[in-house]
Write a structure and sequence with these properties.
The complex is a heterodimer of chains A (175) and B (401). With 175 residues, chain A is an alpha/beta fold. Chain A is built from four helices and nine strands, in the order αββαβαβββαβββ. In chain A, the strands form three sheets. In chain A, strands 1-2-5-4-3 form a five-stranded mixed β-sheet. A two-stranded parallel ribbon of chain A has the order 6-7. A two-stranded antiparallel ribbon of chain A has the order 8-9. In chain A, a hairpin with a 2-residue loop joins strand 8 and strand 9. Chain A starts with a helix and ends with a strand. The relative contact order of chain A is 0.14. By secondary structure, chain B is α+β, with helices and mostly antiparallel strands. Chain B is 46% helix and 12% strand. In chain B, strands 1-2-3 form a three-stranded antiparallel β-sheet. A three-stranded antiparallel β-sheet of chain B has the order 6-7-8. In chain B, a hairpin with a 2-residue loop joins strand 2 and strand 3. The two termini of chain B are 27 Å apart. Classes of the chains: A alpha/beta (175), B alpha+beta (401).
Chain lengths: 175, 401
């Protein structure tokens, strides 16, 4: 089964949850709504002819309009959570994306929520903690969602584009 | 000083007959600034929580403010023991985004350099693992040979530890004249030495007692936790990106004859020449992870020898590095390469507005490899903790990013 067929099959199987399929990109990807994410992931992992049993990476890309380039480049500010998956038995790869608003209900400081997939792949446990720590995405249902790289009492999420470094942390000068 | 709230699962609810033991962040056997909080009942460790982030150098944030070629030196400072392999990963990712094809000579050059660095990295892994298990001389012997490799890398790129040589578009320079002869002389001298290492460690009764049947990692768990490299293959999963990865990466190795180092039907490839697996060892234990690394050193030698031949025969040049300010097209690319420690993935996202990527992400192999450590440590003895952590061969710079 080619990558294109996998993407077509996901679109047929999940219908409304799969909102976009990009099979001409460098790495073909499928976009899924936050509600359908865990079900889609479970399907990808468990079906015998798919078996995406290896979660390579969970990355977050922040599209933020700081310098007014957004309208020129043609996108609206948002967050993208990108899941890079591969299948060890069939040696295939797949990219799953979820689009999120930068802040929940457009209230600055309220983290957008996304169901955790740590029950599907154990790797996701640490990767989601990292995504929460650095990019500010709240994974609901995660067993232990804490900061992993920054200290517990750190303020802000450093990989957000509009993050500003604190001027002072426990008496240490920031800049 | 203000007190930070306590974190982790372990710290909560400790019974009176239990004890919390902090290992690290500066303990010599944690291979960098890793803090392990152990809950112990006598000699038995019932729970372990790794705490990372003490090094946290914001490499990804820096990558989002530099052009791809400017970020090359930062990639090799992440995994400072295998900088060339890290360069290669990022270079290939950028080339994937730019759809840039390498000349043949540059491909062979990359294989030679990457495999040479793999040997250097595995030597450190081997030497320090001996150190973790209480033997010192293999460490010295390993570093003696590694020095010679560093001399060679210094000749090629001009630096000894912070070497960065491979770059998007090829390499920063051609190999210096006479370098290949020096390399061949080194390989001829180095190949018999490996048998000494096997005598010192692999078949050493104490070493086998301390590493065999310790820290068992099943193949399913290794895949579930996203382990990679020797940790994954030590559990018997036949997966190596040099053979199974993306075409852009596997095409480097396409003309090379090599077999993935993994136990198949109870034996390893080349099993007849090197010490057999001891009876105590169980697939997926610390000993197997170590053994896979040892055999990969031999495999790398054979790959370099093939590479030298192909490099000398191939025509064309060693590649033209892309310009520092090459504008990136709109799009994104993700690529994983087989680093000595496992699969190192880079992800580049460009919104098409300039030469600086919107997102430069590194998916590090040790990050996933370390996340399985609590599972391995649970229920073992305190003395086995260094053996288990050492067998994962972690580099904290890569984990903390």
């Amino acid at each position: 089964m080619s990558q294109k067929q996998v993407l077509e099959r996901l679109q047929q199987r999940f219908g409304d949850c799969v909102t976009r399929v990009e099979s001409d990109a460098i790495d073909p990807w499928v976009e899924v709504t936050p509600d359908g994410l865990t079900e889609l992931c479970r399907y990808l992992r468990d079906r015998d002819d798919l078996r995406f049993n290896y979660c390579n990476s969970i990355s977050v890309v922040d599209y933020c309009d700081l310098d007014g380039k957004a309208s020129k480049a043609g996108w609206a500010p948002h967050l993208e959570v990108v899941y890079h998956l591969s299948s060890i038995p069939s040696k295939r790869t797949l990219v799953v994306k979820v689009m999120l608003p930068r802040w929940k209900d457009d209230v600055a400081g309220q983290l957008p929520e996304l169901p955790s997939v740590s029950g599907v792949w154990s790797t996701a446990d640490w990767h989601e903690r990292e995504a929460y720590d650095l990019s500010g995405v709240w994974f609901t249902g995660h067993p232990n969602l804490q900061r992993i790289l920054c200290p517990e009492d750190w303020v802000g999420h450093p990989l957000r584009k509009d993050y500003e470094m604190p001027l002072e942390y426990h008496g240490i000068r920031g800049r | 000083m203000a007190t930070a709230p306590q974190s982790g699962i372990v710290e909560l609810d400790v019974r009176t007959d239990e004890m919390l033991v902090n290992m690290g962040p500066q303990h010599p056997s944690t291979h960098g600034v890793l803090r392990l909080v152990l809950r112990t009942d006598g000699e038995i460790v019932s729970e372990a929580t790794p705490h990372i982030g003490y090094l946290h150098r914001c490499a990804e944030k820096i990558g989002e403010n530099l052009t791809p070629r400017q970020w090359i030196p930062y990639t090799d400072r992440m995994d400072y023991l295998a900088g060339m392999n890290m360069n290669l990963g990022w270079a290939l990712t950028v080339e994937k985004l730019l759809d840039y094809d390498l000349p043949e000579k540059a491909r062979h050059l990359r294989v030679i350099i990457a495999e040479l660095n793999r040997i250097a990295s595995h030597l450190v892994g081997m030497g320090t693992y001996g150190l973790d298990l209480g033997t010192f001389s293999p460490f010295l012997y390993a570093f003696r040979e590694r020095e010679k490799i560093l001399d060679l890398l210094e000749d090629a790129c001009g630096a000894r530890l912070t070497y960065s040589y491979l770059t998007p578009g090829g390499a920063t320079a051609d190999l210096p004249p006479g370098w290949l002869q020096k390399l061949t002389a080194f390989l001829d001298q180095f190949e018999p030495v490996i048998l000494d290492y096997h005598a010192l460690l692999t078949t050493n009764a104490i070493f086998v007692k301390r590493a065999a049947n310790i820290g068992l990692l099943s193949a399913e768990m290794a895949i579930d936790y996203g382990c990679s490299g020797p940790v994954l293959r030590g559990s018997g999963v036949d997966y190596d990106l040099r053979r199974d990865g993306e075409t852009r990466y596997t095409s480097l190795y396409a003309d090379y004859a090599f077999e993935v180092i993994v136990e198949k039907n109870g034996s390893y490839p080349r099993d007849h020449e090197y010490p057999p697996v001891p009876a105590e060892a169980v697939l997926g234990d610390c000993w197997h992870r170590f053994y896979v690394r040892m055999l990969e050193v031999i495999q790398a030698i054979s790959l370099i020898r093939q590479g030298i031949e192909k490099y000398s025969l191939s025509t064309g040049d060693w590649g033209t590095p892309i310009k520092l300010s090459t504008k990136l097209p709109k799009g994104e690319a993700y690529l994983e390469t087989e680093c000595p420690r496992g699969q190192m993935g880079f992800y580049i996202v460009s919104d098409g507005t300039g030469p600086i990527p919107r997102r430069a992400r590194a998916r590090s192999s040790c990050f996933s490899n370390l996340s399985v450590a609590p599972e391995l440590i649970r229920g073992c003895l305190i003395a086995d903790v260094p053996a288990i952590v050492g067998s994962l061969d972690i580099v904290m710079g890569e984990i903390d990013r």
